[in-house]
Amino acid sequence: MWKLPILESRPSFSGAADTDLVGVFQESAGKVKKAIPIKGVYAPLVERFRKSEVFQGAHGSVQFVRFGGKAPAESCLLVGLGAPAEFSEEKARTAGGNAWGKLKAEKARLAVVHVDTLFGVKGLKTELSHLAVARAFAEGLILGAYEYNKHKSSLLAAKGSKGSEDTHVRVVFVTAEKGLRQQLERELDHVRASAEAIRITRDWSNEPSNIGIPEYFANEARKYARQYGLKCKVLTEREAAAEKMGLFLGVGQGAEREGRIVVLEYVPTRGSKKNLKTVALVGKGITFDSGGISIKPALRMEDMKHDMTGAATVMGAMVLSALWQVPNRVVGIMAFTENMPDGTAIQPGNVLKSRAGKTVEVINTDAEGRLILADVLDYAHDFRPDAVIDVATLTGAVGIALGKQCCAILGNDDLLADAVKRAGESCGERIWQLPLWDEYFDDMKSDTADMKNVGNDGQGGAIRGAIFLKQFIKKGTAWAHMDIASMSNGVTHLSYIPKKGATGLYVRTLARFAADF
Ligand code: BES
Ligand code: MN
Ligand code: ZN
């Protein structure tokens, strides 16, 4: 079974590497060749390739060369970095993902990245530090290596039998500069932490919903809480009833499996408690969304196992906050339940009473995410948060509006939205803000109850979802909603995101936000 690669840093490497990794910039015509020299033994090789049409360092391209024993390594992998002027951390990250793809295809076991020389960045006129590039490259490589194969019986059967042990590829980052080496090790630590947190998020999101039921995620959350030093409390449906969470319970009413609300808390152990802020992260955890009585069409309904990705993202962000030891208190609230249609399921036209006291006429049982979130958002206020961010696969409409390049953010506080966007930008995760004018709520008023859960037409769906949630945010509480429905799975254009299944996007954004807030 393939395991995530092991990242190491060393002052030197003289052992038997099988593959040297060499970053190669593309040189634009007419520019001085010497601008970005590739130092050392690979210079002539790279020059030869540059002159040929085969490999010129275009971003996204890779060239594997097997030497057959003569060179310092068995082989080398030239990784295209593109034009120097267009280079960025994100380009380094995707280069890392590309490198992994080729390393795996060529069955490399021990790859070496010479940060000082071969990874031809030094001397490059850019704002980017050596360190930032190495970190982003490592991150792309390890995030790109994720595979979801726990239900492949062929691989499971092979485990333990001779010659088929777990395969760990090692990637060694070498730098002789002592100061740089220490910093690099710290950066690699950060990357290893992201890889672990995002692995959890992706595993959760990919879990089929016959296994990934609310109780399963509650148990998993307890396990990770113990492992990473988080406080953990699990509310059963009985306890949710005591909290008067009528919307949460209404959605789960037609399901055989019971819902759970999981509350995690991270409190920093280091540093002063004086300016300690509290960030509340709230996640939608619909373990399967059939649509309920307003049932969904069959086509691609299997993707609705991913409808708990908001909660999975919160779990990942909690683990990452703990591993990064962010200086703020972080509360994670995950609402898990199934949206199913049985004889006791909520019906269109039913009225439910929320924890906040407001009543909702459920026009469409498929607009269930906003219902469960309304109750847990109200609950989140009890933790006296300085900022509340909810994350949800809330609407198909967000993909219609923005496609699969970014998620949407909406909220009641532009400073908060800006801060989250900045956190996203700093780690290559795109976020775009949509407006949230109160007029969007006009046609969501109900004749029977305080409000309906959908508008009268199908327009502005992502905004309608958010404006519904806003009714449950108290004045003075800074809140942002992230609709990740189009980004939770099936993002195919990034080398460090698996082509199929869960992406694990926005885990880093949220932890980064919690760190900088
Ligand atoms: N979980 C879905 C949203 C979704 C759709 C996520 C496609 C990922 C891919 C959500 O619960 C839902 O069904 N939303 C409805 C809302 C509508 C009934 C107002 C939708 O988007 O159609
Ligand atoms: Mn739905
Ligand atoms: Zn849903």
Question: How does this model look, in words?
Answer:
Helix 6 (214-228) runs parallel beside helix 9 (309-324) and helix 12 (414-426) crosses helix 14. The protein has 14 helices and 17 strands. The radius of gyration is 25 Å and the shape is elongated. The strands form 3 sheets. It has an 8-stranded mixed β-sheet, with helices on both faces. Strands 1-6-5-2-4-3 form a 6-stranded mixed β-sheet, covered by helices on one side. It has a 3-stranded mixed β-sheet with strand order 11-12-16, covered by helices on one side. The protein has 2 domains: 6-194, 3-Layer(aba) Sandwich (Leucine Aminopeptidase, subunit E, domain 1), CATH 3.40.220.10; 207-516, 3-Layer(aba) Sandwich (Aminopeptidase). Strand 3 and strand 4 form a beta hairpin. It is an alpha/beta fold. The longest helix has 29 residues, at 178-206. The protein binds ligand BES, manganese (II) ion (MN) and zinc ion (ZN). Ligand BES is lined by residues 289, 307, 364, 366-369, 393, 395-397, 454, 461, 485.
What can be said about this structure in brief?
By secondary structure, the protein is an alpha/beta fold.
Q: Tell me about the biggest sheet? A: 8 strands, mixed
Bound molecules: ligand BES, manganese (II) ion, zinc ion
Could you name the CATH topology of the largest domain?
Aminopeptidase
Fraction of residues in helix: 25-40%
Which class of the largest domain in CATH terms?
A: Alpha Beta
| Share of β-strand residues | 15-25%
Strand order of the largest sheet: 7-8-10-9-13-17-14-15
Low-pLDDT residue intervals, each spanning 5 or more residues:
30-35
Name the shape in a single word. elongated
The structural class is alpha/beta
In DSSP terms (H or I, runs of 4 or more residues), the helix count works out at: 14
- The CATH homologous superfamily of the largest domain is termed Zn peptidases
CATH structural architecture of the largest domain: 3-Layer(aba) Sandwich
Number of strands: 17
